[in-house]
Design goal:
Elements (H helix, E strand, L loop, with lengths): L1 E5 L5 H17 L4 E3 L5 H4 L7 H14 L2 E5 L7 H11 L5 E4 L11 H9 L11 H9 L3 E3 L2 H11 L1
Parallel strand pairs: 1-2, 1-3, 3-4, 4-5
GO molecular function, one term: transferase activity
Keywords: Transferase
InterPro entries: Nucleoside_deoxyribTrfase
Length: about 160
Amino acid sequence: MKSYLANGLFSIGDRLVNELIAKEVRKEIEGIELYVPQENDAINDKNSFADSVTIAGADMDRLEESDFLIAVIDGIEIDSGVAAEIGAFYMTGKPIFALYSDVRQLGRDNSKKIEILLKDGTENQFMYRNLFVIGLIKKSKGGIYTSIEELVKVVKSTI
């Protein structure tokens, strides 16, 4: 079983999240071959050099051979590379499992948050995610999960 972990990889926060997800997936899913781009020094050691064609080729090869995609969709906006990976992977017809852990999802049943949003659109207490990308994840028969533990549990039970 092969999988690909899509997330940003340039900040310490993203790199730590990637390490946490990879550790849990590898621990919980026996025999998984998880590709984590930040672990591929041939294209992501920034002291070295890899051009855009080399990077795209290396990552696309791994996407094409993966059985499912794990994508982190946190951040101010979905990382542009992650959005591209989701779009490319969707074309395989295989499931996409996304992690969206932003705490601003909480309180969706809080009537005060809804009331203020209806009165003043600038008082949005929630986060927006690109609906095209969200639609691809949902259409892939994967899903969107709010914690690493929940994500790994669902992936493990699905595959």
